[in-house]
Amino acid sequence: MHELSIMQSALSMALDQARQAGASQVLVIRLRIGALSGVAPDALQFAFEVLAPGTLAEKAQLAIEPVPARFWCADCRREFVSDDLFAECPGCHRPSGELRAGRELEVASLEIE
Amino acid sequence: MCENCGCGSTAEAPISVSARHDAQDQAHEHEHEHEPGLEHEHSDDHDHGHRHSHEASHSHSHSHHSHSHEAAGPESSPAQAAESRRTLEVRRAILDKNDRLAERNRGFFRARGLLVLNVLSAPGSGKTAFLRETVRTLAPHLKAGVIVGDLATDNDAQRLRETGAPVVQITTGTVCHLEAQMVARAVAQLDLNGLGLLIIENVGNLVCPAAYDLGEELRVVLLSVTEGEDKPLKYPPMFQAADVVVISKIDLAAACGYDRDLALAHLRRIAPRARLFETSARTGQGMDEWREFLLCQSAEQKARDPLGSEP
């Protein structure tokens, strides 16, 4: 359910952009999805297959670019990458509350013709 | 529709001004950041048919060949289909619209020196009782107004009105969270003169509201001792986004076998930077500390330069 509504918003944004650019069809929709966005790529793919038929994106490929989670440790002044929401800084082993990337839910680009 | 659980949404109902802006933004807003590593690369196969002005934001498209031209020169590439194939940079957050409206709210609140709290919790954590006590204890020092979101009824608003504070109820119908646009509309119904604090009591829900910025200064998440010490681990996005965590109903701790050390350990793990308060609206425990914190935050908000990002 969660992914279905997100996919619906993403698709409608993509279709708006494609129509404004005068596209006759959408070939690829590229999404950037953060590792900690709480959205499962497989479920997005499934939702896309449900929603795309009958639209300009009916034959489009859904390309999902995962964005790894990057945390900032203020004590060690360093950035580290982890896909664990409870990530600890590898330097001081304290949890970091500052997530710098990884929550993205973004329509990155389209291939149209 | 809610981006998280798919419940219905009133977000489509237009705010006249913003609806016009949105239409423009769809066509023109494209922040063209060229961060290292994210720049679009133009390989030799590309046909540079695009405008490339970096002064104005613009919708950015360029023709793109996916096939190679090793043997033939670009001028002899005939394939009509490939010629018309283009890449359209979009780079927009799926929740873009709400985020922009939230920033507008935030600018408005900051310009007035108004401290705004977005108060979130599961249903039944004691938000309304806690907020009623908050308004009462602050009354001699700081005047507060409240916006209350619920699916139905204005029971919470009535309970809060007993304090004498101005209260606006948003009845969301089937929507499980508040959105920035609903807050903007509710604020228009409040007399903000003399108010130093605006409390937004969100719909009781620990999932969907986490994704929606309302333009608040502080996100306050309540966890009652009756809910279980591991709740922050079960709903990490909500607790991770918290600036403040309030452990409520602390007077019931003994009765429900609440393990304080365990709860605090979980909270520190998921929200290490959040300020923690332990309160009881019934006995008043912890409410003085909470009041002093709010007064301090309010003074900071008033001193803030509305045009600066940080105080």
Q: What are the SSEs and their pairings?
A:
The complex is a heterodimer of chains A (113) and B (311).
Chain A: H1 2-20, E1 26-34, H2 41-51, E2 61-67, E3 70-73, E4 78-81, E5 98-101, E6 105-112
Parallel strand pairs in A: 1-2
Antiparallel strand pairs in A: 1-6, 3-4, 3-5
Chain B: H1 16-28, E1 60-63, H2 80-84, E2 86-93, H3 96-111, E3 115-120, H4 127-138, E4 144-150, H5 155-161, E5 167-171, H6 180-187, E6 197-201, E7 218-224, H7 231-234, H8 236-240, E8 244-248, H9 260-270, E9 275-278, H10 287-303
Parallel strand pairs in B: 3-6, 3-7, 4-5, 4-6, 7-8, 8-9
Antiparallel strand pairs in B: 1-2
Helix pairs in contact in B: 3-6, 4-10
Instruction: Indicate the structural class of chain B.
Output: alpha/beta
Count of beta strands of chain B: 9
Distance between the termini of chain A: 31 Å
What is the second-level CATH architecture of chain A?
2-Layer Sandwich
Strand content of chain A: 25-35%
**Alpha carbon gyration radius of chain A:** 17 Å
What would you call the shape of chain A?
Answer: elongated
SSE topology string of chain A: HEHEEEEE
Largest sheet strand order of chain B: 5-4-6-3-7-8-9
Gyration radius of chain B, rounded: 24 Å
Report the CATH C-level class of chain A: Alpha Beta
Helix content of chain B: 25-40%
CATH superfamily of the domain at 97-303 in chain B: P-loop containing nucleotide triphosphate hydrolases
Low-confidence stretches of chain A: none
Q: What is the overall silhouette of chain B?
A: globular
Strands of the widest sheet of chain A, in order across it, are 2-1-6
Largest interface: A-B, 37 and 35 residues
Q: On the 0-100 scale, what is the average pLDDT of chain A?
A: 89
